[in-house]
Amino acid sequence: MPRDNLMTTTLREVWEHLVSHQVTRDLDGWLSCFAVDGVMEWPFPIKGVPARLDGTEAIRAAVAPVWERARKTNRRILGHDHVVFHETTDPEVIIVEFDMLGESARGPFRLATVYLLRIRHGRVVLLREFVDTAALSELFQAGATPPALRSS
């Protein structure tokens, strides 16, 4: 996303840009969507991941091993489905419900996810991710799809 367009970027466009890097496995691109002092939070604990990460370097340190494990185990995000945007009365905040679609060595998976995003000047200053953390932890640790996440 060019820097001169950051002020005119909509909250929806920032989300679309952010998640596009999940599909392309571009960690640097994904992190570039965050403000330097951006925060990532998981209100429900994920095994092995701090509940709050402050700043892009802390976010990188926590998620880079997860992304690398995904590469090594052939687990990947293919896209996002059933996307619903909820605007709020705060012009910096958007809530996005979606299913994260992917594949692993055991087959396809679908993971219901909700992002609460605070975006300022075209950058994510807060990403609060609500997800089935037990299923996600199992997926991260095993590098395979838990039975509850497999598509029918």
Please tag this protein with its features.
alpha+beta, Nuclear Transport Factor 2, Chain: A, 6-stranded mixed β-sheet, 6 strands, disordered N terminus, disordered C terminus
Please characterize this protein's 3D structure:
The protein is an alpha+beta fold and 152 residues long. The protein has a single domain (7-140), classed as Nuclear Transport Factor 2, Chain: A (Roll). Helix content is 30%, strand content 38%. It has four helices and six strands. A six-stranded mixed β-sheet has the order 2-1-6-5-4-3, with helices on one face. Strand 3 and strand 4 form a beta hairpin. It is globular, with a radius of gyration of 15 Å. 19% of the residues are buried.
Topology diagram in text:
Layout: H1 11-24, H2 27-31, E1 34-41, E2 52-54, H3 56-72, E3 76-87, E4 93-104, E5 107-120, E6 123-131, H4 133-142
Parallel strand pairs: 1-6
Antiparallel strand pairs: 1-2, 3-4, 4-5, 5-6
Total separate domains: 1
The third-level CATH topology is Nuclear Transport Factor 2, Chain: A
% residues in beta strands: 35-45%
Order of SSEs: HHEEHEEEEH
Gyration radius, in Å: 15 Å
**Strand order, largest beta sheet:** 2-1-6-5-4-3
Kindly provide the name of the CATH class: Alpha Beta
Number of helices: 4
Contiguous uncertain segments of 5+ residues: 1-8, 143-152
Give the CA-CA distance, first to last residue: 37 Å
Secondary structure tally: strands: 6
> What is the approximate shape?
globular
